[in-house]
Write a structure and sequence with these properties.
Layout: H1 12-25, H2 49-56, E1 63-67, E2 70-85, E3 98-113, E4 116-129, E5 137-149, E6 154-167, E7 181-194, E8 201-214, H3 218-221, E9 226-240, E10 243-256, E11 265-276, E12 282-295, E13 303-317, E14 320-331, E15 340-353, E16 358-372, E17 376-392, E18 395-408, E19 415-427
Antiparallel strand pairs: 1-2, 2-3, 2-19, 3-4, 4-5, 5-6, 6-7, 7-8, 8-9, 9-10, 10-11, 11-12, 12-13, 13-14, 14-15, 15-16, 16-17, 17-18, 18-19
C-alpha cells in the first residue's frame, strides 16, 4: 500500500510538454452490453460520464422557480424499462435468463449567476429481477458541476460526483457470490483554463481524485478498493480557423488500500494530436502518444505502450450522424488476473431522425482486453439497435436490442448474450 502522497517526483517526460508550453502562453471490464446494475461504467477511472450526460441533457422545458435572487430551472424525469436478458451472469454455458423491471426517477437543477453556471443532478435506479431476486439493486448517483467565468482569460470548472451502486454478478473477474458487489465511489475534479475565447493559444490544467470502496463480499472485493490521484495539462494551439493542435501530459497515482496489495502503480502519459472541423459535415479529434506504467512492487513488470484516442463525426444530413471512436489505454484488472489490462476499443454509431417523431440508433463495437502478466486475451463484439418514438415533447417510447459475444483464450470467460428492452421516458 502506498501513502496517498506521491513518493516520487513527477517524471519529466510526462510534464515536459506542460512546462515548455506554459511558458510560451502565459495549459474494467471491456465494453459490453448495457448491464442492468452499475450506475457508472465498469472501469471507473475515465473522465466523469455523469457530467457529460448532464451537459447533454435538453435545455428546453423544465419548471422555473425563483429562489432568493436565483432563477432555478428544474427538470424532473422518470424512465421505466422492462428488460429481458438471456445471460445475466455472462456464463459460457448453463445460461441464466431473467426479466428485469427498472425504474429511474431523476431530478436536475440548473441556474446561472452572471456568467457562471451551476447544475445538480440526483438519480436513483431501482432494478427488480423477476426470478433472481438476490440480483435486485438500488443505485444512486449525485452529481454537481460549477462553471466559472472568472475574467476574459480565465475560466474554471469544479465537479463532484457520488455513486452508490453495484457490480452485477458476472461482470468482473471475481467469483460469483450470493449478492452483487456493492461499492461507493466519490470523484472530485477541478480544472482551470487560461486563454481568451478565440485566442490562438490556451492552457488547461486539471486535478482530480477518485475513491472506490466496496462494502460487502470483502473476501473478494477488498483487493479492489483504490484511490486514484491525477493531475494533467493540455496546451491547445490554433493553426487555422478550424484546426487546433494539442499536446497533453498526465500523471496518475493508483493506490490500492489493502495493505497486502501489490497492484499500486504510477502512470505517466504524453500525447499529441489535433482537433478539426474539416467541413460543416465532418469534425473530429485524435491524439496519440506513450503511456508508461510502473508498479511499486518490482516483481510486477511495468511497461510502456503506444496509446491513442480519437472521435470523428460525419453528418451527411442535419438529421443524420455517423460517429466513429477508437481508443487504447491501460485499465485496472480485477480478481487478481494479471497486472493490468491493455485495452483497445473501436466503435461506430449511426443515429438518424426519420421525421419529427421517429429516430433510430445502430451501433457496433469491437474490443480487445490483453491481460499483462497473465495468459489471457478477450475479444468482445457488441451490436445494438434502438428506436425511439416521441409521443409528446416530454414523452418518449422506445425499444432497444443488443447482442454481445466474447471469445477468450480462457474459455471460462466466453459468453454470448442477448438483451431486449422496452422503455418509456418522460422528462419535463
Amino acid at each position: 500500500m502506498r501513502s496517498l502522497k506521491p513518493k516520487r517526483p513527477i517524471p519529466m517526460f510526462a510534464l515536459a510538454g506542460m512546462t515548455v508550453l506554459s511558458s510560451a502562453t502565459m495549459a474494467q471490464q471491456s465494453p459490453r452490453l448495457p448491464s442492468p446494475g452499475p450506475v457508472a461504467a465498469p472501469v471507473p477511472f475515465s473522465p466523469s460520464a455523469s457530467a457529460a450526460a448532464q451537459e447533454g441533457a435538453s435545455k428546453t422545458g423544465g419548471i422555473s422557480l425563483k429562489l432568493m435572487d436565483l432563477l432555478v430551472t428544474v427538470h424532473p424525469s422518470v424512465k421505466v424499462e422492462t428488460r429481458y436478458d438471456d445471460n445475466i451472469y455472462l456464463s459460457p454455458n448453463k445460461r441464466t435468463s431473467d426479466q428485469i423491471l427498472v425504474l429511474t426517477p431523476a431530478l436536475r437543477l440548473e441556474t446561472m449567476k452572471g456568467a457562471n453556471r451551476f447544475a445538480l443532478r440526483l438519480s436513483t435506479t431501482i432494478g427488480q429481477y423477476q426470478n433472481n431476486s438476490a440480483d435486485s439493486y438500488t443505485n444512486t448517483n449525485l452529481n454537481g458541476v460549477g462553471d466559472f467565468d472568472l475574467n476574459t482569460h480565465l475560466r474554471a470548472r469544479v465537479e463532484a460526483d457520488l455513486v452508490d451502486g453495484v457490480d452485477p454478478r458476472g461482470s468482473t473477474n471475481n467469483p460469483l457470490s450470493d449478492t452483487p458487489d456493492h461499492y461507493r465511489q466519490t470523484n472530485g475534479r477541478a480544472s482551470l483554463s487560461y486563454g481568451a475565447k478565440g485566442a490562438r493559444g490556451r492552457l488547461d490544467l486539471e486535478l482530480g481524485q477518485l475513491r472506490r470502496e466496496y462494502l460487502n463480499n470483502r473476501a473478494t472485493t477488498a483487493a479492489s478498493d483504490r484511490v486514484v490521484n491525477d493531475l494533467g495539462a493540455t496546451f491547445h494551439w490554433r493553426i487555422g480557423p478550424r484546426t487546433t493542435l494539442l499536446i497533453q501530459g498526465k500523471h496518475s497515482i493508483i493506490d490500492y488500500t489493502l495493505p497486502a496489495s501489490t497492484l499500486g502503480s504510477v502512470e505517466n502519459a504524453l500525447l499529441a494530436g489535433a482537433a478539426w472541423e474539416a467541413t460543416a459535415k465532418t469534425k473530429g479529434s485524435f491524439k496519440i502518444g506513450m503511456t508508461k506504467k510502473d508498479f511499486d512492487d518490482s516483481a510486477r513488470a511495468g511497461a510502456s505502450a503506444i496509446n491513442w484516442s480519437g472521435e470523428v463525426r460525419w453528418s451527411p444530413r442535419t438529421y443524420s450522424h455517423v460517429d466513429l471512436s477508437l481508443n487504447r489505454e491501460p485499465g485496472e484488472t480485477s480478481g487478481g488476473v494479471g497486472n493490468y489490462i491493455d485495452r483497445t476499443n473501436t466503435g461506430a454509431r449511426w443515429t438518424h431522425q426519420w421525421n419529427s417523431r421517429l429516430s433510430t440508433e445502430a451501433s457496433a463495437s469491437y474490443a480487445t482486453d490483453a491481460y499483462q502478466g497473465a495468459a489471457r486475451t478477450d475479444n468482445t463484439q457488441n451490436y445494438g439497435f434502438k428506436a425511439t418514438y416521441k409521443m409528446r415533447r416530454w414523452l418518449n417510447l422506445g425499444a432497444d436490442y443488443t447482442h454481445g459475444t466474447r471469445s477468450s483464450s480462457d474459455n471460462n470467460f466466453d459468453y454470448q448474450r442477448n438483451a431486449f428492452m422496452l422503455f418509456l421516458d418522460a422528462t419535463l
